[in-house]
């Protein structure tokens, strides 16, 4: 029973952080599905993986969530590239 209570209190702030980040970034709004991203964040911060989200400062938690959203944003953009553009991208990444 205690674990359920901790789970609820630890994770109450996750949806609000996701909502705030998406609401304040036009690229996120246009390219990310809020519900899907919330599911990703909830899986990432699963209580078995991160037993106490409250031990992470809100600033660090927000930064981590923003990084995850950005990763999904960039990976989604790569899906729109033509095979030729993807080859150019791959070569650029290899060159560093």
Rounded average pLDDT: 84
Task: Give, in order, the helices and strands.
Answer: HHHHHH
Low-confidence spans: pLDDT under 50, at least 5 residues?
1-8
Global outline: elongated
- Secondary structure: helix percent: over 70%
Tally of helical segments? 6
End-to-end CA span: 51 Å
> What characterizes the major β-sheet?
none
- Rg, rounded, reads 17 Å
Q: Which band does the percent of strand residues land in? A: under 5%
Q: Tally the beta strands.
A: 0
Structural class by helix and strand composition: mainly alpha
Characterise the protein shown here:
The protein is mainly α. It has helices spanning 2-11, 13-23, 26-31, 34-44, 58-78, 83-95. Helix content is 75%, strand content 0%. Helix 2 packs across helix 4 (34-44). The chain is elongated, with a radius of gyration of 17 Å. The chain starts with a helix and ends with a helix. 7% of the residues are buried.
């Amino acid at each position: 029973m205690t674990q359920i209570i901790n789970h609820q209190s630890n994770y109450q702030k996750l949806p609000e952080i996701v909502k705030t980040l998406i609401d304040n970034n036009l690229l996120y709004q246009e390219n990310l599905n809020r519900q899907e991203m919330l599911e990703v964040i909830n899986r990432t911060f699963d209580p078995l993986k991160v037993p106490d989200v409250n031990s992470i400062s809100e600033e660090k938690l927000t930064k981590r969530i923003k990084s995850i959203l950005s990763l999904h944003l960039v990976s989604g953009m790569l899906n729109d590239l033509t095979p030729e553009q993807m080859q150019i991208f791959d070569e650029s990444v290899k060159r560093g």
